[in-house]
Amino acid sequence: MPKIDLDSIQQANRTGYPAPFDKDVHGRWYRRLAPTSGLTDFGVSHVRLEPGAWSSQRHWHNGEDEFLVMLEGEAVLVEDDGRTLLKPGDCAAWPKGSTNGHHICNESDRDCLFVVVGGGTNTGGGYSDIDLMFTPDGKYVHKDGSPYPQRSA
Amino acid sequence: MPKIDLDSIQQANRTGYPAPFDKDVHGRWYRRLAPTSGLTDFGVSHVRLEPGAWSSQRHWHNGEDEFLVMLEGEAVLVEDDGRTLLKPGDCAAWPKGSTNGHHICNESDRDCLFVVVGGGTNTGGGYSDIDLMFTPDGKYVHKDGSPYPQRSA
Question: Which residues does chain B have within 8 Å of residue A67's beta carbon, measured at their own beta carbons?
Answer without folding.
Answer: 33, 37, 39, 42, 44, 117
